[in-house]
Structure formats: C-alpha cells, structure tokens
Q: What sequence folds into this?
C-alpha cells in the first residue's frame, strides 16, 4: 500500500495501545473520580469507551471465554443504566413535597421492565443467562442491590395504591383526591391575607370534605396523598390556627368536682353514722406464776 | 387450720398394709396426672379472663371514643365524662355486688389468703368452687370497669382453688363424687396440690414458670422435697403453655407462642438496652425511693378505717362504685386539660387514640396512658422511643395513679395490685430516665429506667424478693436484667422493712390470722414453752363417756380442735382431733354397740375421708340421753405418737418443729410423761420482734 495505508495502520495501533493503557487505569479508579455527573449508577468504565454500546476490543479476546460478557447482556445492562439514571433524575426533585408516585411511576415501570429482562431465566441468543453473568458473579451484586433499593422505596411509599395496573396512570381515587386538594388550597389562597378567622370559616367545609375523603381512603394510601394531607393539616392547624378551642371548661370542672365530692360525703357519713366494729380479743390461758412477763410489752391493737 | 401432720392411727396402718406396691405406683402417677390437669385448667381460666376482658373492654372504649369525637366539636364533653363514669361504675357495681353479698372472701387479690393457706392456716371458704366463680367474674368486672387494678393477682387464687378442687375428685358444692383420688382427701395431700395450683397461677399470670415454683417455695417453705418441686414445676410449665397456645388461637395465629402470660412486657433486646457498671448505684438509689412504703402506710390506715366503719355490704358496694366514678372523672379531667399532643407512632395501631383538642394528625398523649388497659400502658412505657412522653404528663400521671391505686386496693372487689404498682413504678422510672438524660447528657434509655422503677415500686409494696426477681426476669425474657432487678428489690425490701411490712403481710395481720414467719423472732431463746403454752388442757380419757365428749365439743367458749388422750393419771397416750370425734359420733361407734356392729361393717379410713373437708358441726349430731351414758374407745382412732416437747424447750426450737413439720398441736409433757400444756399456732404467732424488743400481740377473735 502507499503511505496512506501505512498511516492508517499506525493510527489504528496507537488507538489500541492507548485504549489498553486507559483500560488499566480505569479499573483502579477510586469512587468519585472520573464519574460522569448524571449517571451515578454506572459501572466504572474508562470514559474513552463510554458510548451507548460497548465495543469489545480485540485485546479482550485474549481473555478466556468464560469471563466474557456477551454483547446481548451488555446491551441489557446499558439499558438498565439509562433507565436507572432517568428514574433517579425524576425521583430526587420530587422528594419535597413528596410526589414520587404520581410523577415518576412511568420511570419505575420501565426500570422494572429492564430489570426483569436481566433477571429472567430466558436464555439469550448466545445461549447463556444474563442473570448469572451480570448479577451473580461477584459478592457486591451491584445490579441487584441498586434495584432492591428502588423497589424498597416504591413499596414503602405504597405507590401501588395510587397507580393503576401496568403503570398506565394515576388511578381515579387519587385524581379525585388531588382535585379536592387543589380546591382547598385555592380556597386557602383566596383568604390568606388578613384575619385568619375568615379563612377558618369559609374554607372549613372544603377542608372537612378533604378530611373525610382522606379517612375513607385510610387503608389504601400512597405517600403522595399522605404527605399532601399532612401538609394541609399543618397549614390548617399551625399556620392558620383553625383548631377547635376548648369550650365548656366550666361544665367539665363542675361535673368532676361533684364526682370528687361524693366520696368525701360518703366517708364522712359512714364515719358518723356507722357503729364502730369492735374486736374481741382472745386472752390466752396461761400458767400465771411466771413473772418474766415483765419483759414483754402488752400491745393492745 | 390445716392438719398437715398425718394421724398414724391403726386404721391408717391397716390401709397401708392392704395397699399393694402397684397401688403406690398408681398413686404416684395419679399425682402427676392431677398436676398436669391443674396446669391445663389454670391456663384455660387465664385465657378465658383475658379474652373476655379484651372483647368487652374494646366495646367500652370504642363507645366512649366515638362519643368524645362526636362532642369535641359541638361541645357537650361533660356528657362524655358522665358516660364514662356511668359505664365504669355499672361494671364495678356488678363485680362488687357479687363479692360483697355472695362471697366476701373473694375480695382483694387472694394472695394473702393463699399465703395463709400455704402457711397452714385455712381461712374459711377460701378454696371453694363458688369462690372461684365469683373471683373470675369479679376480676373481669373490675378490670373492664376501669379501676386501677390488675388481673394477675386473682389468677393465683384461682389456680389454688382449681388445684384444691381437682385433687379431691369430687365437688361438694355440686354434690358430685367421681370416686377417684380418694387417697388424696386429706390436708397433707391437698396442701401440696394447692402449692402446685398457686405456682400454676403465677405462671399463667406472668409467663414465669420458675417464678411460680419459687413463689410456692417462698410461701410454703418448709415442706419441700424433690418430687414435689418437680410436680409443681410440671404444673407451671403446662399452665403457661396452655395459656400461650389458646391465646394464639384466639389471636388467629395458631402456634405463634408469643403470649406466655397475661402480662406481656414485650421483648427487651440486649443490644439496645445494655447497662453499664456506673448505672448500678443509680439503680440502687432508685430502689431506695420509699414510695412503696408510703403506699403501704396509706393503705394500712385506709383499711383500718374501712374495717371499722364500712363493714356493711351495701356500703362496700357503694364505695366501690364511687371509686370507679372518680377514677373515670379524674382520668377524663386530666386528658381534657392536657396540652401535650404527639403524632401517632405506627406501632400503636391497637390502642384508642383520642384527638380531642390537638391538631389534626396528632393525638392527646395523656390519653395514651389513661385511656388504655394498664397492661398496654406498662408496655408502652417500657418500649416507646425516648421523647414520646412529656415529663409533665408523666409526673401528673404518676401522682394521680398512685393515689387512685392506693385508694382502690382493699375495696370489696376482686383485683390485684401487681399491675398498678408496675405502672406507677414504670412512670416514675421513666421520669428518672428522662431527667438523667437531660442532666448528665449520658445516653440513658428511659425504657430501661422504667423497668427498674417498676421493679422498685413493686418490691417496695409487696416485699417479695426471690420469687419476684425471677418472675420479672422471666417476664422480660432477658437474664441480663437479673442483677439490677435483684439489687433493686433487695434495696427496696431493706429500706421498706424499716418502716413497715409488705402489703399482703399488713392485710394478713389486720385479719388477725396467726401467721408464722420463716423463723422465730430473734432474741427469743430465753422464752421457754412453759410461758408460751396454754394450760390447763382439755384432755380425754382413752375410754371416755359419750356425754363428756359431746359436752367438750359443744363448749363454745373454747373452740379446741385437738385433744390429748390420756390414761390415768394423766399420762399421754395419744392425740385425737375434733373432726375424728365428730365422725365417730356420727357413726355411733360406741363400745356397747360393738356386738351389734359385727353385723355392720367396721369403720374404715374411707369414712373419715368421705366426711372431709366439711365436717358437720357438733350441733347437727344428735345424741340421745341413753347414748350419752355409753362409752367410746378411742384407741384405734387416735394418733398414738403425737409430737411432744418438754417445758424447758425454747421458743425457737418449738417454732422450728411447728413450721418444719406443719403441726397444729404440740403436746407439752413433764418428766413423767404427763400432759401439762398444749402449744398451738395462736400461741406462737403472738411473738414479734418490735421496736422495743420482743412483743406479744393480742389476736382478735375472727
């Protein structure tokens, strides 16, 4: 070939050697170094290799075949990583006020899908199970642990109560609740300035309706609804100070003092009227001649 | 009084000759069977009480809670107060009527009566079926009625009654005789079974089988042998297992054996609640707090007042109703005026949270202590996170509940004092824990201090050391706390004994029961039998006229139960009991009729056993004028070898003999074997070591 061909071959060699050197560096990275900011769950791979698909290097072919991860599995892994990062990107902003169910349910759905693909028992095209090679090969079990955490959060939030089957959307109950909530909040906003007693009076019915709706949903709540209700309650009781005041203290004190008085009357009357029950003492029959009785004190009880 | 000592008369020797070896083996096996049966029945009774209380209390609390919630907004909470008071006093009225009018012996917790029984003193009607039924119904009514009481103490009494009934193989109340276990129809055997029953009761109440065995040991100390201990342990274990099993069925998780007793303290995990060495002096200091002695003191004067002035049944019922109403109103008022609001912990799903005037989502924290059964409150105090309780709330609760509990004990209702004392102690213990944590900024888990406080308070009130330590250790399920609990109980006993005795001992003394302690009072060795014995003694000749016997027995001024039998001139040859004489008179075993008696069968031990335990009084035996002239030969029926002492024997020696052998009469003879006096329990129980040396008390006639 001409000079161009030689240059191409030379460039190809250089690229490979650089890649090989960086590969070594990559495996000895500490956590925190060279991490791309928007993909925290990603396995540590040298950035030069970081594209959407993993290109197996010709150098890798020198490793034994058993340790090699097939293309198919690597692809599944990358899908999982992408969906994971998307889900977390949705979750964290929804942390306060808590809206993890209603905002991020589709993300969770796709994440679940990706995980199911990895952990299923089906054999891939090259007749191997991705589950064993990706999830069970080391003691860290990173994929499993990361997904378990997300699944845990989902279960603890009881999100299944708010979302319809197969992550299609938010169910009717929750939407109804959210509608009521918005009404109440808009009522709050209307009367927010000035004296809160007006707010307490005017918004009382919608707040009460909201409370009743909440109690009817008591067993099938997700965290979104729970938190929204909590915040509303805090607004109502603490900020606007609309709680019920203590009325009729006088009546309660009167009744209880009457009850406390009765025993005193009872004891006084029984003291004055009943005859005291006298006790007959048993006198022991003794031989009378011994004077050592002086040492013993007679106690009449 | 119990005749524990066996009367080895000729009839007894005959029976023993007749019984074969397999007969004795059968007896032993049937003893084990009876103990197992006692355990099962006691467990079932405890289960029944627990289930009924739970179910009915739920209705009551739900009703009151709904009423309060309805009236909180629109006003009219005084109606809720009245409703609560009415519910309380109606339940208590039922319970109190049962006790005051039908069976007064069922009042209180029953532990003093069982202590007396194991000591050898039989308070009348204490182990009857009627007493059991009234006790069970009474305790259910008292607990549902919201009084400051517990349901654990009456379990011990119930266990003892079950044991006394089952071991006899018949029921005198129901007039059914199953013709089994006839060998056991005497005081010796019955008392052993009652020890097993008491142990089974303790074990069912607290989930503490070993504690139950030790309780029986501590109370009926001296008549111990290994087989008896083994059988008692067997009964306790069966009892707690039965209770556990049936409670798990009723909670719909069969086989989950997590309720070993009526009171469940919850699990104390050792990792979280370790204690350090420097905390031990703190614990001992908590044990020295004399609230227990104060409780006893106040209750003592209150009981004296009640004995003197409130002794008619209708007055007693009214008093109980008033206490119930006041308990309700005090609780309600404290809840009403409390400003302490806390959000609900997720573990408290089964309680009855009251919101009252708190913000939405928060609940009145005073209500979680007052508006609940005491067992659940104790559990919460032991296990809740630090910060759940406001110190002010706890302090007010302690003071109020202390006075309520002190007022309630001694009423004519069936109720125990264990749980109220634990609750008071847990409350102020937790308070100490909170105070220590704020003072020294050491990490003091208030739950641990609550446990120590509860032990200190209970020890200060009942002054039981050994059995209580083991009961508490078993109830907490953790031996780690054994050392602090033991130290605290010892301290409480030492400090409290300086002031007065334990609550049960006070009540025993107030009822003038001749209770014998473990040992004779110290410094009494100079007292000899001559000064202690009763003299002169009513003796009977070996061949005595029926008329004399009838007169002696009918003499109401001296209610003797044992008569030395003498041959001329007043030489001792045996001892005969009143019960035996009555059976002889009933069957007309006269010398003159011996001839015609050959056609009828000879009197056997069975006839004595059939008349046991309720021997007819002498008034119901009819003796004609002719029969009065007949003679009766006591040789076959008397105990030919009664225990004797001489006049010079010191008091501690006599005491030891009495206590160790369970005697009821001890004949005092001189050097010529002549009867000079008789020592009975009443003679020995008078002597106490008081503040000014040895004192002699006068016992009242009961």
A:
């Amino acid at each position: 070939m001409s000079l161009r061909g030689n240059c191409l071959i030379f460039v190809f060699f250089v690229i490979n050697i650089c890649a090989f050197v960086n590969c070594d560096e990559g495996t000895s990275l500490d956590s925190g170094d060279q991490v791309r900011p928007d993909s925290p769950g990603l396995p540590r791979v040298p950035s030069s290799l970081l594209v959407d698909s993993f290109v197996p290097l010709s150098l890798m072919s020198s490793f034994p075949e058993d340790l090699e991860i097939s293309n198919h599995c690597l692809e599944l892994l990358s899908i999982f990583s992408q969906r994971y990062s998307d889900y977390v990107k949705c979750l964290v902003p929804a942390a306060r006020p808590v809206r993890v169910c209603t905002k991020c349910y589709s993300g969770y759905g796709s994440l679940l899908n990706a995980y199911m693909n990895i952990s299923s028992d089906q054999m891939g095209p090259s007749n191997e199970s991705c589950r064993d090679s990706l999830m069970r090969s080391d003691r860290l079990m990173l994929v499993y642990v990361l997904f378990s955490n997300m699944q845990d959060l989902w279960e603890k939030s009881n999100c299944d109560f708010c979302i319809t089957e197969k992550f299609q959307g938010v169910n009717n109950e929750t939407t109804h609740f959210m509608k009521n909530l918005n009404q109440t909040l808009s009522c709050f906003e209307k009367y927010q300035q000035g004296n809160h007693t007006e707010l307490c009076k005017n918004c009382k019915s919608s707040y009460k309706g909201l409370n009743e709706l909440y109690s009817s949903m008591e067993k099938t709540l997700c965290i979104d609804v729970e938190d929204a209700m909590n915040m509303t309650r805090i607004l109502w009781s603490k900020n606007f100070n609309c709680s019920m005041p203590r009325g009729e203290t006088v009546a309660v004190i009167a009744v209880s003092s009457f009850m406390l008085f009765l025993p005193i009357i009872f004891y006084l009357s029984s003291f004055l009227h009943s005859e005291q029950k006298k006790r007959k003492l048993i006198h022991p029959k003794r031989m009378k001649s011994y004077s050592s009785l002086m040492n013993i004190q007679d106690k009449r009880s | 009084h119990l005749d524990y000592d066996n009367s080895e008369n000729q009839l007894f020797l005959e029976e023993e000759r007749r019984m074969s070896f397999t007969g004795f083996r059968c007896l032993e096996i049937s003893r084990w069977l009876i103990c197992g049966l006692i355990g099962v029945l006691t467990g079932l009774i405890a289960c029944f009480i627990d289930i009924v209380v739970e179910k009915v209390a739920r209705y009551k609390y739900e009703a009151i809670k709904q009423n309060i919630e309805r009236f909180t907004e629109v006003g009219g909470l005084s109606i809720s107060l009245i409703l609560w008071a009415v519910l309380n006093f109606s339940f208590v009225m039922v319970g109190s009527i049962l006790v005051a009018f039908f069976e007064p012996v069922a009042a209180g917790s029953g532990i003093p009566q069982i202590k007396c029984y194991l000591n050898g003193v039989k308070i009348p009607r204490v182990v009857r079926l009627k007493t059991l039924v009234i006790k069970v119904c009474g305790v259910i009514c008292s607990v549902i009625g919201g009084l400051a009481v517990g349901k654990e103490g009456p379990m011990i009494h119930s266990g003892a009654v079950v044991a006394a009934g089952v071991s006899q193989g018949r029921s005198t109340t129901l007039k059914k005789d199953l013709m089994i276990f006839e060998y056991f129809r005497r005081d010796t055997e019955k008392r052993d079974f009652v020890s097993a029953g008491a142990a089974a009761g303790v074990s069912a109440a607290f989930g503490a089988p070993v504690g139950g065995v030790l309780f029986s040991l501590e109370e009926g100390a001296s008549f111990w042998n290994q087989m008896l201990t083994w059988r008692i342990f067997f009964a306790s274990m069966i009892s707690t297992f039965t209770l556990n099993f049936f409670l798990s069925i009723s909670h719909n998780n069969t086989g989950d054996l997590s309720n070993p007793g009526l009171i469940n303290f919850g699990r104390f995990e050792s990792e979280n609640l370790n204690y350090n060495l420097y905390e031990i002096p703190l614990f001992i200091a908590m044990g020295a707090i004399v609230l227990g002695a104060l409780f006893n003191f106040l209750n003592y004067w209150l009981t004296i007042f009640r004995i003197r002035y409130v002794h008619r049944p209708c007055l007693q019922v009214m008093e109980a109703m008033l206490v119930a109403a006041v308990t309700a109103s005090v609780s309600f008022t404290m809840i009403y005026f409390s400003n302490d609001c806390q959000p609900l912990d997720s573990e408290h799903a089964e309680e009855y949270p009251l919101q009252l005037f708190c913000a939405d989502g928060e609940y009145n924290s005073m209500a979680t202590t007052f508006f609940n059964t005491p067992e659940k409150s104790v559990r919460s105090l032991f296990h809740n996170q630090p910060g759940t309780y406001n110190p002010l709330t706890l302090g007010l609760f302690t003071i109020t509940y202390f006075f309520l509990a002190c007022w309630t004990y001694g009423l004519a209702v069936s109720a125990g004092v264990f749980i109220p004392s634990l609750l008071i102690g847990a409350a102020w213990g937790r308070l100490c824990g909170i105070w220590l944590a704020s003072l020294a900024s050491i990490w003091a888990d208030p739950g641990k201090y609550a446990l120590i406080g509860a032990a200190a308070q209970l020890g200060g009130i009942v002054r039981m050391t050994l059995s209580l330590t083991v009961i508490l250790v078993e109830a907490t399920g953790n031996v780690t706390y054994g050392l602090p609990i033991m130290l605290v109980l010892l301290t409480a006993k030492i400090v409290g004994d300086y002031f007065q005795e334990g609550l049960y001992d006070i009540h025993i003394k107030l009822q003038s029961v001749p209770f014998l302690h473990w040992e004779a009072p110290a410094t009494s060795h100079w007292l000899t039998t001559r000064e202690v014995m009763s003299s002169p003694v009513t003796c009977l000749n070996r061949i005595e006229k029926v008329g004399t016997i009838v007169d002696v027995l009918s003499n109401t001024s001296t209610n003797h139960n044992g008569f030395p039998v003498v041959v001329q001139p007043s030489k001792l040859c045996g001892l005969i009991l009143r019960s035996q004489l009555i059976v002889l008179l009933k069957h007309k075993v006269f010398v003159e009729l011996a001839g015609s008696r050959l056609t009828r069968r000879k009197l056997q031990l069975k006839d004595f056993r059939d008349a046991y335990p309720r021997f007819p009084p002498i008034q119901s035996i009819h003796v004609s004028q002719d029969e009065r002239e007949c003679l009766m030969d006591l040789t076959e029926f008397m105990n030919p070898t009664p225990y004797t002492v001489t006049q010079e024997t010191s008091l501690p020696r006599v005491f030891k003999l009495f206590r160790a052998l369970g005697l009821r009469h001890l004949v005092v003879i001189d050097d010529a074997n002549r009867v000079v006096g008789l020592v009975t329990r009443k003679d020995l129980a008078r002597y106490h070591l008081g503040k000014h040396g040895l004192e002699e008390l006068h016992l009242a006639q009961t």
Q: What stands out?
A: DSSP finds 28 helices and 14 strands in chain B.
